[in-house]
Amino acid sequence: MTGKMGSLEMGNPEEVPKQGFSTYTMVLVCVAVAAVVGVACILGTYYLHPAYGNTGDNNLIPVTTVEPPQRDRINCIPDVEIDHEHICMQRGCTWQSTDEHGAPFCYFPENYGGYNVVSEQTFGWGLRLRMERAASRPTFFGDEILTLTVDIEMQTENRLHFKIYDPSNSRFEVPVEMPTRSAEKAENPNYDITYTNNPFTLKIIRKSTGEVLWDTSIGALIFEDQFLTISTRLPSKNIYGLGESEHHSFRHDMNWITWGLFSRDQPPSYKGNLYGVHPFYMCVENDANAHGVLLLNSNAQDYTLQPTPALTYHTIGGVLDFYMFLGPNPESVVSQYTEAIGRPMLPPYWSLGYQLCRYGYGNLSNVQEVVESMRRYQIPHDVQYGDIDYMHRQLDFTIHPTNYVGLGDWVDSLKPEGTRYIIILDPAISANETAEYYPTYQRGVDNEVFIEDENGAIQFGKVWPDYPDVTDIDTSLPWEEQVEKYRAYAAFPDFRKQSAQEWWANEVSMFHDKVAFDGIWIDMNEPASFVHGSVDGCPDNKYDNPPFMPEIWGPTIYDKTICMNSVQQVTYDMKDIHYNMHSLYGWSQTEPTLQAAENATGERSLVISRSTFPSSGKHTGHWLGDNASIWPHLYYSIIGMLEFNLFGIPYIGADICGFFDDTTEDLCRRWHQVGAFYPYARNHNGLGYMPQHPAHFGEEFALEVRDVLLIRYRLLPYLYTLFYHAHTKGSTVVRPMLHEFTSDSNTWDIDRQFLWGPALLISPVLEPETTSVKAYFPVARWYDYYTGMELSHDMLAVGGGVTLDAPLDYINLHVRGGCIIPTQTPDNSTMFSRRNEFGLIIALDDEMEASGDLFWDDGDSIGTIMNEQYYMFHYTFSNDMLTADIAHSYGNLMENLFMDHMMIYGLMEEPTRIVVTDYDTVTEISTFTFDQETMALNVNGINHAMDTGFTLKIM
Question: Per the residue annotation, which of 173, 523, 544, 751 is the catalytic one?
Fold first, then answer.
């Protein structure tokens, strides 16, 4: 049957799938009514639009529009700093005063409109709606797209993709590789989808609970060339993520707060848009289910959170490309998200060790002295860095001719001692050198690797490289004058070009022949520039002067970066403007840099990038930027660490002791205690500030730092296993308590404690001159890490938490019952500790059971998981017996490694005998002790080869 009903085309019956959408009869009813009034259609059922009532005789009549409550208002003039009633009225919006702080005077009235659905078409993968702009609605900034398409793809049972775009003109879409469209939709999706026709609104509903996760009936859909906005009601106020920003709590403040997202060379600052862009949030619903949403858009944007609760997006380009992940728990949300954008990389084992860096060592002798001081106190030290002062006049791929003579030989000498070396590289390449002295630039010109201006000439900015004749810099001059007088012109490689990737790899390889570095730290890749736009400014155009500026820092969009109309490669056969590609610049640099580093070193390498975007975690880690040596930044580093684990970049940390300003001994001590549990543990400080490496503060301080780092090194097998799970399953490495105890609403706003995986709880001191800490313990069995003493029952799930002693040299650590943590006897580098004996911490739950696992490879080779070159151990404890199973083995990888000791927490009585069984061999263990006060059993001398399974029975 085909035909027309009203003005709407109807599809053929066979186009309608059998499951997941309405039956053909339902589509007929829905479309027929839609020609007269707005109705709500559901993919599976149909409902009346809430703006219309039912009289009982099936006649639809309008319901009187009611003004929204003040907290439901969506700002209609986000571009106007001061309220202007006449602009509000011109836009067809409502002007009314408010007594709710933060609520706008000018707001969209209910059913403001936007676009009306004019046709529907079903496909195997989902639904396509064609929409036309409501003719009566005013434009905001002009160039409104008159016809839009909405594609709704039911990709998996827990992943939904919906995109709003212009079908007639190709607009920029983010070139991140995402799941391709399947020929068929998910068979049993855990969501329902409803929409209204006139105006178009969209709802996404969790089937199991009926909770509405996404509801655009609030606000308006506007889709102009350089202004796109959409709002959604949220099911709760428990919103996490959306960065990179300095957030002062992990759970967002919903009190009319607007945050900008656009990559910027900006040290952590409240409300500042920082280095990376991650338009992804997780929401914990009031019933403790969780979901996540990604807006895949790289243009300058902002988002407003309000107490409705609701979220409003503004962006100035691209399309509205959303992915929703249904969870239903926080860990599965992150797993589903990283399944879509790409799993995090598996870092080399050595990169889990302690790392030292500073900008301004001055010369190689000073670096050598710092390294020697670490060895003198036997402080674990796996990685030493070179910041830009190892270079000659800050030129990439050079060595300072006087201050760093012998750098290559010295780096070679570090390797037998177990210390690696990482270099910094900035993307900006000096253009004022002679080809003879600095052929890097000339080779780039010859291969056309650099970003160009609108006329095809190289776009020049200024960053760190000095002019060739600069020998001394007058730092008393104003910064702008220093830049003009001393800084050379700089060109920016376009890492989306194949020629640029090959050029970059060649330069990296040639430099590795001089200095055998092990990893690369890429900085200033927002990209940053010390002049605004270019050395000649920017031409007057709609990209460098857009009609709407999201709430980002700077007087112009090109502040501290290059011109927006610069031309870049997007794909092999397509170019676009920097306006669209800006926030992708750091993302575009990471994969070529990792490939270059691994080609040069022949091993698994490490890249640390300042600027990131969704999917960067596949190739890079991140540090939280140029923080300051202040107590609040110690606290905020935990929030940033938790957020980047949400973003799929679990290799994350902050500069221990702070980058800017002089630290204090108290702050640096407590920061090392927290930093010992950063996945990426690096002490880094800035030019001109006091040294802050552990030995600087004297022997007592150095030994305190050594002791807390030895705890980290003891637990590295567990940390590495967590990274294995992140790499293969997409789980978080560091996580908030709400991920493990989501049903306990007390955990939803805890961000001063954090977990390593499910098992280890870290409760640090975050204030000066403090020797106690308030900690919260969800209901479970919890044991003191150091002694095995179980927390008393009256300390669990106390709303305000409990106070724990925390002497200056102590950080509170607790092990969760039911977990087994693999350990290894620590040493002063991972090279040596990896040769030592293994152990286990076994913490029993209420059922007197526990489980855990251990992943182990050589720590250096590329592709060990893909090539199955690893061991996987599963440990279970039940009925007073530990079983160690080998799920996967590889060659002689575990040769000369032994399981030697165990701590078992939570036993009810002292054992009399312990026996180990390996196949038919039974060995009795006599070297064990039992503490009657803590009820902890310490077993030593097991001496069992790691390459075979065994059982250990307690009797």
Answer: 523
Q: What is the mean pLDDT of residues 78-86?
A: 84
Left (φ > 0), alpha (ψ -120 to 50) or beta: where does 448 sit?
Answer: left
Average the pLDDT over each of 543-547, 798-802, 848-852 and give the range with the smallest value.
798-802
> What DSSP designation does 895 have?
T
3-state DSSP assignment of residue 753: coil
Q: Which residues contact 701 (CB under 8 A, 6 or more apart)?
A: 665, 668, 669, 694
Tell me the whole-structure pTM to 2 decimals.
Answer: 0.94
Structure tokens, 452: 């160009």
Residue position matching structure tokens 């959604």? 232
How many other C-beta atoms can be found within 10 angstroms of the C-beta atom of residue 127?
A: 23
Are 740 and 731 in contact, with CB atoms under 8 Å apart? Answer: no
Q: Of 285, 526, 643, 827, which one is the catalytic site residue? A: 526
Residue 490: domain span: 426-620
Number of Cα atoms under 13 Å in the Cβ half of residue 932: 0
**Structure tokens that stand for 127 in this block:** 């639904």
CB atoms under 10 Å from CB of 367, counted, come to 23
Amino acid at 456: G
Cα angle for residues 198, 204, 210 (degrees, 5° grid): 115
280, 284, 289, 294: CA torsion to nearest 10? -10
Is residue 418 pLDDT above 80, yes or no?
Answer: yes
Catalytic, 526? Answer yes
Domain boundary among 569, 603, 620: 620
For residues 45 and 185, state if they share a domain.
yes
Task: Kindly state the tokens that stand for 398.
Answer: 């050079």
Task: Count Cβ atoms below 10 Å from residue 476 Cβ, excluding itself.
Answer: 7
Confidence class for position 32, pLDDT limits 50, 70, 90: very low
In whole angstroms, give the CA distance from residue 140 to residue 142: 6
- 157 in active site: no
> Of 341, 360, 380, which residue is a domain's last?
341
Q: Which of 887, 902, 886 is nearest to 947 (CA)?
A: 886
